[in-house]
Design goal:
With about 150 residues, the chain is α/β, with parallel strands linked by helices. It has helices at about 10-20, 40-50, 85-105, and strands at about 1-5, 30-35, 65-70, 75-80, 105-110, 125-130, 135-140. The radius of gyration is 14 Å and the shape is globular.
Length: about 150
């Protein structure tokens, strides 16, 4: 099922991420797509807030991944932006997926295009700039868990 949500600002982005966090389980995979500056990492900050993670959430663009353990469910935040070929991206993904399974963590992946074909069950969040301001979110809910009012 797909949901379409418009957010006006950072606060609403964080709240949307937090709302999604309550629907995620250990080993959930969330794919985040959108242009540079669309708010992918801010959305992950909202997820982390909903998981009661106390560490600062920053973009893992250069590190490729950050692991956060302080919340009710661990979070692995992966960013594949710098990887140019699918074999490198898949190698990193499979390593982090194994870690997520072992630790019962949620895995969030920014720039997942190179690995999406090898993932079976995932949430997909596509973020785009709205016409005048704000962001549009298209959320693919694999289990029909979300409701918006």
């Amino acid at each position: 099922m797909y949901f379409f949500v418009f957010v006006e600002n950072l606060k609403e982005t964080l709240n949307l991420g937090k709302k999604l966090s309550h629907k995620l389980n250990p080993q959930s995979i969330v794919l985040l797509q959108g242009p540079i500056g669309a708010g992918k990492t801010s959305f992950v900050q909202g997820i982390a807030n909903g998981l009661s993670i106390s560490e600062d959430i920053t973009s893992p663009t250069f590190a490729l991944s950050h692991h956060y353990n302080s919340g009710r469910i661990p979070l692995i935040h992966l960013d594949l932006y710098r990887l140019e070929n699918s074999s490198s991206a898949k190698e990193v993904f499979f390593s982090e997926e194994e870690e997520a399974i072992q630790r019962q963590a949620i895995l969030v992946i920014e720039w997942p295009e190179l690995v999406e074909p090898v993932i079976d069950n995932f949430w997909k969040i596509e973020i785009s700039y709205a016409k005048n301001y704000g962001r549009n979110y298209e959320i693919r809910d694999p289990k029909n868990l979300l409701t918006f009012s």
